[in-house]
Automatic annotation (TrEMBL):
The keyword Transferase does not apply. It is found in: Mitochondrion. PANTHER family: ZINC PHOSPHODIESTERASE ELAC PROTEIN 2. Its cofactor is Mn(2+); Mg(2+); Zn(2+). Homodimer. It comes from Tripterygium wilfordii. It is an enzyme of class 3 (hydrolase). InterPro entries: RibonucZ/Hydroxyglut_hydro (IPR036866), RNase_Z/BN (IPR013471), RNZ2-like (IPR047151), tRNase_Z_dom (IPR027794). It holds the Pfam family Anti-Pycsar_Apyc1. The keyword Disulfide bond does not apply. Its EC number is 3.1.26.11. Its main location: mitochondrion. This is ribonuclease Z.
Length: 951
């Protein structure tokens, strides 16, 4: 059997000079101090005062959470502070050139002594996708000194953070297929590992088919500090080869890992393509076989002495399995004469058959014959007993007669069904965020609706050891159990072989969460009652809101006068607009906040996504339920991405793939994706793996000057929007460039945007057909304009302004449309201020608190006060702050004096446009939920400084 070692590994390290490693079977590696895993629990308790004295700023800066290192791969220690103080932004980072000149040491693999006897080993379900059905579950194979993960769907990193599973200890990640469902969480995971410690962590990734295409697609946002080396089985030898290789050449298993404690082999399944349909790399899947070695029985010296053997070298020979001659008798002594029975090594199979064609290939694969219970009848020499099979296949496939026929070949193996099925939806995977959501829902259900998985009315709590029932009268199915979060199957010690449910989370209901809350903070009930009264009065009177007496929390403010509402809110309908903050954290997912995504719900007119960080689909399903989220994805009109950093776009491929599947066979247009030009490279490479059913439009082509050029071309040549005279096109291109150069962001201006490089004049004419499509999409959605605005953060970073079309009331009065502005990531900049003039809602990033100006400048982000000042100077009616550093796990630090028309965003917060007048009114109440989280802990600061000093 061919054995494949390091050449089949995708190797990440923090060294830009790392050369490809030589082939080796060693899985050890040097572990830098794990900053991420060591301080994550500390940060969960950390809170800062609303304003910090300047003398404490330097102390605070030394304990900086390194979220931007994992996202950018840049080191900001070389920042020239005199430059940042004068320009108030990090020019080198905005240009994409803020790299550290510090030399890095190569990560070396270290040898680890592995003991196959005295070790703990188990497989465990890492429940990604089980409550939301959005991705394939992951499986952990655990040993004392080794960790292996099978599949890395979206949400894996967040799940492991929630349940204290240390991903920094992972040696290998194996993919059962190469697609967004199984690998959606890979970019974020690798970026996080690259940012741990000073040198980063290494990890090996192996998968079938063209894994290198996926890795190549990540190179536009993988940090420069990480080197990538890929190879995979079943890949084409030439990048120009269209057809995938025939699996007949992969009859023998591919040995991926073989050491003292485990042997992991891969069996490739590539079903034959039907006539007229081309094979895609995503069609190839893998059956993984994990075999633990046999443990020899205990040597019995009493039996050896009775057979005439003297203590000495012959004892050792017998323990090694060799026969020896008796010292006193003319006979041979065999190992079985003096050794107890051997303990067989457990065997685990992980099977992913996405289609019936894969099942047929599975049945015809002879290489698995040794693992079948009737293998002796097939002429095989040895029979290997399979103890556990984890089925990653969809439930519909598992129930099919063909698949059931294959399952019965495995004899008495324990079958765990981990594919998508409506099980465990009442047990949220992310219990911490679900608890926060339930508490917020209790306080203010108008802005914080109940999560979708708790609003389902047809819970059917199944016993964990129940047999899967078939919907049709077919032959009796193999006995199996449904996978549950953190379900284990113990492999070592052998005496405990079998299922272990001790880690499975208990059922958590909203009532349990609220009862716990009321015990902690009894006066929360009064606050919730006051909010209900406030809402009732507002809905009933629609007049000036009067102060609510009771606990002295609320203070009447003149800005809540109904007469100050902007004209666009006159007679507004509740089905006109809803803003749903799906992800409100920065850099990487945490227990309480997912990364950036804003869902613009236009109800019957469709919807838009503004940014789409990892886990966006899961958040949609938590907000609307499984079916509701599917409908939301089907009805998407457009997706807009602000910039190429991973926390803003790595959830996009999964959204596109799901929409493709949901609309298969239904007439529809490809989804329009508007984003920075680097994003197109990532999506194009992904489309080599699977069809994403999309069209791409560069953000630059949706800037104000580009729209003006398009409209002028539309007027001058209505018959052919995509053509024009060469002179005319050149004139329009020059005009667009001149328009951009004349703005405050022109080169030479201190606060310039680096979206355009010298000599890269923008020619919009090739984009005119897509602009026409976008215009049609906007019209159908009731929108007048979608304008991208260059901002100051990194190359090709944008904000967006959306304006609704005018409408008429019952008497024919023309009412202006609302306007939403979303900043993306940025320093405060005049271009965004100008775009926000008269905005109904400004959604602005506020990554840092006011006392961390130096951090904000170094990372090209905004502080809370700066974000509010942008909205104030632009005359925005309401400001929603989002994109908070994960140093603030539950609520950020802010100054109450700035919050007169502002609110703090939380995940799944849903703001209906009709309720905008009340947005700032609820903030003092919400603070009650987190009042114990907003204290200064100087002891923690000291601990953090000590910890930082050791890195």
């Amino acid at each position: 059997m061919p054995q494949i070692g390091t050449p089949l590994r995708l190797f990440f390290s923090a060294s830009p000079l790392l050369a490809p490693l030589k082939p080796s079977l060693s899985l050890g590696r040097t572990k830098s101090f794990s900053f991420f895993t060591s301080i994550s629990s500390c940060f969960s308790q950390r809170r800062h005062a609303a304003a910090r004295q300047s003398s404490n700023i330097r102390k605070r800066s030394s304990s900086t959470f390194k979220e931007d290192r994992s996202r950018y791969g840049n080191r900001d220690k070389g920042l020239l502070m005199d430059e940042t103080q004068s320009l108030a932004f990090n020019k080198r980072k905005a240009e994409g050139g803020d790299k550290s000149d510090k030399s890095k040491r190569n990560l070396q693999h270290k040898e680890r002594k592995l003991n196959p006897v005295n070790t703990i080993a188990y497989v465990q379900i890492l429940g990604t996708g089980l409550d939301t059905q959005d991705t394939s579950p992951s499986v952990l194979l655990f040993f004392d000194k080794q960790r292996f993960i099978f599949n890395a769907g979206e949400g894996l990193q967040r799940f492991c953070t929630e349940h204290k599973i240390k991903l920094s200890k992972i040696d290998y990640i194996f993919l059962s297929r190469v697609c967004s469902e199984t690998a959606g969480g890979l970019p974020g995971l690798l970026l996080t590992l690259a940012g741990i410690g000073e040198q980063g962590m290494s990890v090996n990734v192996w998968g079938p088919s063209e894994l290198k295409y996926l890795v190549d697609a990540m190179k536009c946002f993988i940090p420069h500090a990480a080197m990538v080396h890929t190879s995979s089985s079943g890949s084409t030898s030439s990048s120009e080869a269209a057809a995938l290789p025939n699996t007949s050449k992969f009859v023998d298993p591919i040995v991926l890992v073989k050491d003292e404690v485990v042997k992991i082999s891969a069996f490739l399944l590539q079903p034959s393509s039907s006539q007229g349909s081309a094979k895609k790399p995503v069609d190839m899947s893998v059956v993984y076989v994990c075999e633990l070695p046999e443990i020899m029985g205990k040597f019995d010296p009493v039996k050896a002495k009775a057979l005439g053997l003297k203590p000495g070298p012959k004892y050792r020979e017998l323990q090694l399995g060799n026969s020896v001659k008796s010292d006193r008798h003319d006979t041979m002594v065999h190992p079985s004469d003096v050794m107890d029975s051997s303990v067989p090594g457990p065997i685990v199979l992980l099977v992913d058959c996405p289609t019936e064609s894969h099942v047929q290939e599975l049945l015809s694969t002879r290489s698995l014959n040794n693992y079948y219970a009737d293998s002796s009848s097939n002429g095989t020499e040895t029979t290997k007993t399979v103890n556990c099979v984890i089925h990653l296949s969809p439930t519909s496939i598992v129930r099919s007669p063909l698949y059931q026929k294959w399952m019965k070949k495995l004899g008495s193996a324990e079958h765990i069904i981990a594919g998508h099925e409506m099980k465990n939806v009442e047990i949220p995977i992310l219990k911490s965020s679900a608890r926060i959501a339930a508490r917020l829902n209790y306080m203010c259900p108008q802005f914080f609706p109940a999560p979708g998985f708790w609003s389902l009315q047809h819970f059917e709590k199944s016993s964990s050891d129940s047999v899967i029932q078939s919907e049709a009268p077919v032959a009796k199915l193999c006995e199996s159990i449904s996978a549950e979060n953190l379900l284990k199957y113990t492999l070592r010690p052998y005496a405990h072989l079998g299922l272990d449910r001790s880690c499975i989370p208990s059922l958590m209901s909203p009532s349990d969460v609220i009862n716990e809350l009321l015990l902690e903070t009894p006066d929360i009930a009064d606050a919730a009652r006051l909010i209900r009264n406030l809402w009732h009065e507002y809905r009933e009177t629609k007049e000036e809101i009067h102060p609510v007496e009771g606990n002295g929390v609320m203070i009447e403010e003149p800005w809540l006068d109904e007469k100050t509402k902007p004209p666009c809110l006159e007679n507004i309908r509740r089905d006109d607009l809803e803003i749903v903050l799906l992800g409100t954290g920065s850099s990487q997912p945490s227990k309480y906040r997912n990364v950036s995504s804003v869902y613009i719900n236009l109800f019957s007119k469709g919807s838009l996504l503004l940014d789409c960080g990892e886990g966006t689909l899961g958040q949609l399903k938590r907000r609307y339920g499984v079916e509701g989220a599917d409908n939301a994805v089907k009805n998407l009109s457009c997706v807009w991405i602000s910039h190429i950093h991973a926390d803003h776009h790595t959830g996009l491929a999964r959204i596109l793939a799901l929409r493709r599947d949901l609309l298969k066979g239904v007439p529809h247009r490809p989804l329009l994706v508007v984003g920075p030009r680097q994003l197109k490279r990532y999506l194009d490479a992904y489309e080599r793996l699977e069809d994403l059913d999309m069209q791409f439009l560069d953000c630059r082509n949706t800037m104000k000057g580009s729209w003006e050029a398009f409209e002028e071309n539309n007027e001058s040549n209505k018959d052919s929007l995509s053509t024009g005279s060469p002179d005319n096109l050149e004139e329009m291109s020059n005009r667009v460039t001149t328009n951009i150069e004349s703005t405050i962001f022109a080169r030479g201006s201190p606060m310039q945007s680096y979206w355009k490089r010298p000599g890269s004049a923008v020619d919009n004419s090739p984009a005119f057909p897509l602009l026409k499509t976008l215009k049609e999409v906007l019209t159908e959605a009731g929108l007048e304009t979608l304008i991208s605005v260059p901002v100051v953060h990194c190359p090709q970073a944008f904000g967006i302004a959306l304006k609704a079309s005018e409408r008429s009331n019952s008497v024919g009065k023309v009412i202006p449309g609302w306007k939403i502005v979303y900043s993306g990531d940025t320093r405060p900049c005049p271009e965004l201020v100008e775009a926000s003039r008269g905005a109904t809602v400004l959604i602005h990033e506020a990554t840092f608190e006011d006392g961390m100006m130096e951090e904000a400048v170094a990372k090209n982000h905004s502080t809370t006060k700066e974000a509010i000042e942008v909205g104030d100077s632009a005359g925005a009616y309401r400001i929603i702050l989002t994109h908070f550093s994960q140093r603030y796990p539950k609520i950020p630090v802010f100054d109450d004096t700035h919050m007169h028309k502002t609110c703090i965003a939380f995940d799944m917060m849903s703001v209906n446009i009709a309720d905008l007048p009340l947005v700032p009114k609820i903030l003092p109440y919400i603070k009650l939920l987190f009042r114990n989280e907003m204290v200064v802990e100087d002891e923690l600061d000291d601990a953090m400084n000590a910890l930082t000093a050791t890195l």
